[in-house]
Structure to design on (408 residues):
């Protein structure tokens, strides 16, 4: 396979998670009678541009279907993060009713609802029908399509150039990263700004966050790689922030390379130096990741088997892609974990891909009173512990498996 960005031959492996179905391909009762599609899940490292990426097996149309079940607005902490983002961008870049904001991967309108509330014209781009419809119900204009240079040029022809574009947790999700980034360079006004948020590869590797690897994540990103990709496609990075979201993320600020006037912040050099000091520009940094993931898998399986042998019951919370990666790699089925709770009605009464564990509403926790509740979206650990604090009433305990097994 050749690198998605620079076309160099890929020979270095970060991790091989064998095979699994797409992590958001939740099953209906009827679909349990059919065969699931499984794809290899292997991640490779480009030693020229340092883009870390999955092998090509599944196309975007197979991963982001019309009934895509990931809705951003079901996390209160993510909503708070998004509202603060809008406040910060409006203040920093003097945005007002004469400005135009475009969000790529607008999902269910979780972010643009705060833009709309300020009276700032906005538009969302979202390829999945289920979430696009949810955004429209909030009164947000949506283009239901995948983003790239072609769509950006059409929007410019329609007078829809942007003062600000937002792309939160989508840069990793695109198979053609060059076309995607080039679209922002085409869409921005001469003085416009693009922001991108994505999990930081430095944290993923150092904190053993292997469960954030799944087919929908085509790329695993460092600032080193992102800077090269942007500069090759018409954007320059002028600032970057470290965020606590998703186990450690970066927010990158970019401008058109031909017309941008923002000075480059010291933060850019600081984080590039941090990545270099960590060894991210060398093969050694990526060695040993497989062994760390295997240790988590084995510890999690040992916990579940011990619980079963001692007559304890285990439930899960959060039908998240993270949990699906972990459970499929570990081979967990319903005999070891009874059900998974999720607040999203689009997931309830369905079954997890691969493991086929049922997804239920929160009432099942009180009804069945499990001895343990495994928190799969560990990045929302504090939020979930507070929300489900009542399980302590019957002596139940919370469990997280990543970055290491911990019983709370």
């Amino acid at each position: 396979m050749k690198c998605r960005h620079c076309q160099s031959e890929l020979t270095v492996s970060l991790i091989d998670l064998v095979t699994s179905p797409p992590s958001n391909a939740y099953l209906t009762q009827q679909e349990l009678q059919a065969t699931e599609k499984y794809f290899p899940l292997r991640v490779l490292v480009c030693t020229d541009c340092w883009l870390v990426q999955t092998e090509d097996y599944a196309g975007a149309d197979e991963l982001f279907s019309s009934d895509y079940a990931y809705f951003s607005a079901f996390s209160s902490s993510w909503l708070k993060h998004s509202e603060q983002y809008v406040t910060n961008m409006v203040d920093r870049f003097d945005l007002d009713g004469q400005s135009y904001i475009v969000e790529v991967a607008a999902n269910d309108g979780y972010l643009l609802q705060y833009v709309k509330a300020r009276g700032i014209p906005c538009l969302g781009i979202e390829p999945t029908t289920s979430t696009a419809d949810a955004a429209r119900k909030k009164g947000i204009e949506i283009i239901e399509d995948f983003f790239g240079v072609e769509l950006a040029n059409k929007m410019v022809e329609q007078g829809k150039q942007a003062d600000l574009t937002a792309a939160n947790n989508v840069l990793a999700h695109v198979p053609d990263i060059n076309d995607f980034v080039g679209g922002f360079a085409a869409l921005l006004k001469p003085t416009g700004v693009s922001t991108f948020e994505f999990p930081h590869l430095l944290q993923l590797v150092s904190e053993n966050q292997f469960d954030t690897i799944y087919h929908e994540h085509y790329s695993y990103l460092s600032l080193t790689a992102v800077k090269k990709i942007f500069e090759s496609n018409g954007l320059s990075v002028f600032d970057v922030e470290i965020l606590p979201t998703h186990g450690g993320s970066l927010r990158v600020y970019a401008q058109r390379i031909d017309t941008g006037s923002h000075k480059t912040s010291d933060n850019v050099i600081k984080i590039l130096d941090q990545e270099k000091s960590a060894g991210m520009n060398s093969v050694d940094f990526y060695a040993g990741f497989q062994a760390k993931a295997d240790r988590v898998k084995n510890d999690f399986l040992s916990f579940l088997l011990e619980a079963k042998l001692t007559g304890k019951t285990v439930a899960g919370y959060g039908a998240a892609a993270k949990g699906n990666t972990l459970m499929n790699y570990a081979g967990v089925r319903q005999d070891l974990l009874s059900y998974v709770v999720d607040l999203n009605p689009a997931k309830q009464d369905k079954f997890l891909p691969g493991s086929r564990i049922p997804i239920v509403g929160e009432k099942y926790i009180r009804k069945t009173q499990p001895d343990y509740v495994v928190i799969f979206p560990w990045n929302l650990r504090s939020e979930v512990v507070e929300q489900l604090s009542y399980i302590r009433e019957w002596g139940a305990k919370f469990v997280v498996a990543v970055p290491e097994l911990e019983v709370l």
